Recover the amino acids of this structure.
């Protein structure tokens, strides 16, 4: 494995048109790819999965993200898959588990008035499919988990993938999730050179538990607010339970 370049100067063979390697074809990786496509900057995506399956449930986009997506020409398409959120509330379950106490309520409706864009929710698979439709298929390489990276001031970055192939570029962007192969390789190199902070050497801790339930389509006569043109988020802190 090559070593990481720790100097502040990295040589790019063609500064006006660098080659960008993107690890991961998730939301962030695809969004970056669309941005680079618009800017006519060369790039390739390396995805560890052998197929792009629709994974995940709901996801939220806040008002500070939507201007970027509008500049990329995606806003009108996004409106077809999102639902605006007007508020989010946090409740606490009573000891008898029969009543809920309102702890806090956040009004999202004012986001549109203050910033010009709403807070929105949508199905993550729908968002990923929309982004994927704007990235040329030949730019995405499946079944290529990044195993190691080598960075040199003179030659940019070289990656080695799980199928034994290597790929050269000027910039590597790690957007391959919590168990990132890019991060693991980078940390290993930093550790060998005594550069890894102690906090980054510790195991990743998850201090919460999420339980996700998905209903079938609901009857509006039984659940009237399902006809509303907006969404809402309610969270309940269980009484002496290890989850919300």
């Amino acid at each position: 494995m090559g070593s990481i370049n720790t100097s502040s100067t990295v040589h790019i063979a063609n500064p006006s048109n660098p080659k960008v390697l993107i690890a991961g074809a998730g939301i962030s990786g695809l969004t970056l790819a669309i941005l680079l496509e618009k800017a006519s900057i060369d790039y390739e995506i390396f995805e560890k999965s052998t197929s792009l399956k629709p994974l995940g449930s709901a996801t939220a986009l806040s008002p500070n993200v939507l201007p970027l997506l509008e500049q990329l020409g995606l806003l009108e398409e996004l409106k077809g898959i999102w639902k605006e959120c007007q508020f989010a509330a946090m409740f606490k379950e009573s000891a008898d588990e029969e009543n809920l106490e309102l702890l806090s309520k956040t009004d999202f409706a004012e986001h549109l008035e203050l910033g010009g864009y709403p807070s929105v929710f949508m199905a993550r698979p729908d968002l990923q499919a929309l982004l994927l439709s704007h990235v040329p298929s030949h730019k995405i390489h499946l079944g290529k988990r990044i195993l190691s990276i080598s960075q040199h001031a003179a030659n940019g970055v070289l990656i080695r993938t799980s199928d034994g192939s290597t790929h050269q570029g000027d910039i590597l962007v790690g957007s391959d999730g919590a168990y990132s192969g890019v991060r693991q390789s980078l940390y290993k190199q930093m550790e060998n050179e005594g550069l890894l902070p102690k906090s980054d050497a510790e195991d990743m801790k998850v201090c919460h538990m999420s339980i996700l339930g998905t209903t079938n389509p609901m009857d509006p006569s039984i659940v009237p607010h399902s006809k509303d043109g907006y969404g809402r988020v309610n969270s309940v802190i269980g009484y002496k339970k290890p989850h919300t």
User: Anything to note?
Assistant: Helices lie at 27-38, 66-71, 75-79, 109-115, 124-132, 181-192, 198-201. The longest helix spans residues 27-38. Confidence is low (pLDDT under 50) at residues 1-8.
